[in-house]
Structures are given as structure tokens and as C-alpha cells.
Amino acid sequence: MRKLTIGSTVVEQLDNSGNYAIAGKLLSGLPADYNGTQGQFNGSVSVTAVGAGYRVVEGANAKQGVATLSSGVAVVSNTSVTANSRIFLTAQDNNSTGVLRVSARTAGTSFTITSSVITDSGVVAYQIFEPA
Prior knowledge:
Structural class: mainly beta
Strand order of the largest sheet: 1-2-3-4
Number of domains: 2
Radius of gyration: 19 Å
Number of strands: 12
Number of helices: 0
């Protein structure tokens, strides 16, 4: 059995088919390279337990969060945004009825969410991904 340490977490290889366990949770098909800050997996990540899923920290400069529109616009200060970031937007209430889009971005500084309805004042969730 092969062991890999990610930060202070020991990842144990369960078998030769690329199945790994992290803190007792099974991950399948994860031949992994790890450089101390990022895990790279050459395969699929499966979440197989009902009620389980991915969790992402929110907060200042995080890859996930919420913003509130004012007159259909919200400027989100976020130093993690890049010129190539893929930013997904979802209205979180009934106060955003227009089509949402990222209308501007400044890498390392902020991005702007704009609704097609200028009176929108709702909460918008965002998720930022970087292309590989």
C-alpha cells in the first residue's frame, strides 16, 4: 500500500487500481501529484455517498461567495480572479429576475456582476474556476 501526505493528511492507497482513502473516505481513480498547495488528479473524482459533496470556503478573496446587486450591479472585490477565470452566477432569491453576467473584470482586483434588469437588488452566488 502506498501512502501520500497532503499537508498533514495522510492519503492511503487502498489497492493497485488507483483507489485512495483520505481520512477514511474513499476516492476512486486518483493517481495524484501533489506540490504542497495543489492536488492534481488524472482521473475522475466521485462523490458516492448520499448527502456528501464538495465544500468550498467563502470569504474575502475566496473562489466562492455571494454579492448583493444594487440597481442591477455588484462589484465584487476579489484578488483571486484572473483574466481567464470562469465565473458562474446564480440568483439566490426572487429579487434578481434579469439575466446575470460578468460585465467586467480586473485580474487580481475585482469583477462586476450585471443584471439585464436595472432594478434588480437580489443576492447572487458566484463560483470561480480556473481552466487547467
